[in-house]
Amino acid sequence: MHRKSARILLLGYTLIAIVGALLLMLPAMHKIDDFAFIDAFFMTSSAVSVTGLIVQNTGADFTFWGQLVLLVIIQIGGFGYMSITSFIYLILRVKIDHSNRILLRDNLTLPTTSGALNFLKKLFLLVFCIESAGAVLLSMRFMLDYPLLEALWLGVFHSISAFNNAGFSVFETGLMGYRADITINIVITTLIIIGGLGYFVLLEVYYWANKRSKKLSTHTKVTLVGTAMLLIVAFLSVFLLEYNNPKSIGEFSLWDKILSSYFASVNYRTSGFNTLDLSLFKDASLFFGSIFMVIGGAPGGTAGGIKVSVFVILLLYAYHTLRNSNAVSVFHRRITQDAISKSFVVVVVAFLYISFCVMILSLFEDGGARGFLALLFEVCSAFGTVGLSMGDGGILSLSANFDAMGKLIIIILMLSGKIGILAFAFAVFVKKKPTGVTYPEAKILI
Q1: Rounded to whole angstroms, how far apart are CA atoms 269 and 294?
Q2: What angle do helix axes 81-91 and 3-24 make, rounded to 10 degrees?
Q3: Residue 435: inside a domain, yes or no?
Q4: Spatial contact of 387 and 272, defined as CB atoms under 8 Å apart
Q5: For a tag on the chain, would you pick the N or C end, based on fewer CB atoms within 10 A?
Q6: What radius of gyration do the chain's Cα atoms show?
Q7: Residue 127 near residue 163 (C-beta atoms within 8 A)
Q8: CA dist., res. 134 & res. 161, Å (int)
Q9: Are 296 and 50 in contact (CB under 8 A)?
Q10: Per-residue pLDDT at 158
């Protein structure tokens, strides 16, 4: 991503969050007597970055119009504001110049600008169909418990929130009331997984499934296999570590243990819905959860984190290095040195960034009974735009206990996580001018 594109995207999402916060401050949008702007800004930043951390209860503290504003911001954040802007231009038959095509390419994480507009048209239709299908299925289930119009709103809201990996819910206790409901669990997790695969992968799989493409690209194969492996490992970590924990799933039946562990493992990766109280999880489970949240989803999708492809590339590089192999390959294709170098940079910058933010946050805030681990979990959740939290002792995120400085740190983490850590670094650091000086090599022992 170009530095200019990174700065424009970061500024754009920040402005959307600010405008959204100003809208939420209107009396018609909320039911809160003393509603601070920093809380409104936090909520809209969480929405536009499709994170899901909340400092006010979405269902109880906001009117229908306030919830609608949050849902629109979630959709803009998930699909990308440049994608939506470009689509409006296409409808109005306004010509899109080269600079905006570059922004669109970077927003969708496409390899080139060629065919970006055609890709956008097909993507918009595919996203609409997936979200509509999810809304219909969820609405049908909610009709068993709520009047028709309310069930439709619940279905639409949770479908868009799930597909965009936002984790927002208009139920006061999230999805805890549907912990054992197979329909809600399967539909929500399926939408989350599909949204986290990345738009490029989604369209390619769609074409391949409809015989319009003969084979899948290496990127798609790596994303699908990497996602499946991480989901399995995440499921096993929750299931095995929490199996005998009476505070979480220890007292459940075997089926409920499997269902709850699966739901938690999917949301560890990319979204912030929860059917269990994570504050009751063991330290080992929360530590592994932090790692999964940092990894995140696939490039060009609705998820954050360092990305599945980066994680897989580094695993492959480590494997081939230990075997003393000259080239790193996967699916009979060689991985370029440029991809390996960028993956290393992403991980190093992410590690330093997360460490710095946790350290600074710990100076201002207290993690409560779980101490430092709670702060680490919150930071990893914000960075990965996941939205899971050990909570404030009630139904809000731990961030609800923070003062303005602590909330601002989490806001920066969410917005930087939205555009990606490498893009954020490009936006912050000034490019060094080439000097033309070449230094002799140095031998450093490893």
Answers
A1: 8
A2: 90
A3: no
A4: yes
A5: C
A6: 22
A7: yes
A8: 10
A9: no
A10: 95
Residue 81 · residue 89 · CB < 8 Å: no
Spatial neighbors of 1 by CB under 8 A, at least 6 apart, are: 106, 420, 422, 423, 426
Average pLDDT of the segment spanning 110-122: 69
When divided into structural domains, the chain yields a total of: 1
What's the mean pLDDT when you consider all of the chain? 86
CB–CB of 359/427 below 8 Å? no
CB 305 within 8 A of CB 385: yes
Q: Which among 354, 247, 230, 370 is positioned nearest to 288, based on CA atoms?
A: 230
The answer to whether residue 441 sits within a structural domain is no
State which amino acid sits at residue 163.
Answer: F
- 310 lies in some domain: yes
Q: What is the DSSP letter of 30?
A: B
**Residue 439 in domain:** no
Residue 435 CA to residue 73 CA, distance in Å, equals: 44
- Coil, strand or helix at 334: strand
- pLDDT tens for 362-419 read 988 887 767 889 999 999 999 998 989 988 877 889 999 999 999 999 999 999 988 8
Q: Which amino acid is at 375?
A: L
Within a 10 A sphere around the Cβ of 212, how many other Cβ atoms? 9
List residues bridging with 330 in a β-sheet.
333
For residue 22, with 0-12 CB atoms within 10 Å meaning exposed, 13-18 middle and 19 or more buried, which class applies?
middle
Which residues are registered as beta bridge partners of 329?
334
Residue 83: domain span: 3-428
Structure tokens at 168: 């927002």
pLDDT at 77 over 90: no
